[in-house]
Amino acid sequence: MKLTLFSTILLLFASFCEAGRPNLDNCDWTGSGTLEMALSRGVQPVYLRCNQGTIRWHYPQGALRIVLQSRSAGSPFSACIRRSKGSSGARIYLAGKKKLILIFNSEDPVDLVRCVTSEEGRVTLYVEADPISDLLRRTTAEFSYHLKKVSRRSNESLADECQPCSEEQLLHHYCSSDFVLQGKVTNLFHNQRLQVTELTVRISKIHRANELQKFPRISNDITETVTPSKYVILQRPLKCGTKAGSGEYLFLGKWILGNPSLDCVPRITEWKKVRRKALQEGSNQCLLNL
Description:
The chain is of the alpha+beta class. It is 16% helix and 39% strand. The protein has 4 helices and 15 strands. The strands form 3 sheets. Strands 1-3-10-5-8 form a 5-stranded mixed sheet. The chain has a 5-stranded mixed sheet with strand order 2-4-9-6-7, covered by helices on one side. A hairpin with a 4-residue loop joins strand 6 and strand 7. Keywords: Disulfide bond, Secreted, Signal.
């Protein structure tokens, strides 16, 4: 069926209005800067309510205003962001109360991860396209996000993520972490480029480990019957100033945008005390292994 010019314009306008409506159940967003920016006077609103997802912006022009919310509406969280390989054409800002704070520019490493805290249960990002002379030049600004719940009761925030975990936090993370590994630190590398400290850990026991094949490692593959000669590389924020200690530790953490990020690193002797107390008081939330 042939469409008149007027009908075509109406269809385009209706499609744009439908795309512009806030759909708070979306995890991903894909769009083009060409038509959207022209119709929205330069800024395209994007509303996402999901724990993790990806934004792809083809032919960036103007800006995106992206509002991230967790599925638990109003709950505080931290949002970690990572630019994808090949991403170009835009800068990413955190929209603060009075100013924009630069998170990523086009020259930052694509595997760099940066995290920010929510305000009133949301994180608002402002993604601004770089000036370009060729509007038809093929560019795509792409990045992923991961939301991590923050406890109100413990007043946990990015400001104190380097502090040792309390007994309550140890028990919670032991039961909820993506991986719980026991072993010794054999090497420490402060990666300035990625702003993380990389801990090479010789594993003696696996308490839990989702997606074993994804762990960065320096020797043979880890299996469920792991031997003490197996190694993995885990990460902590560089700002924590992590130092290598002797003895055996328990490493508890989650996968954040493809990286094994540590939440708690108690000594095994400390963990055994916490475990024994929890079993005596019946405060354990899951089976606590030795």
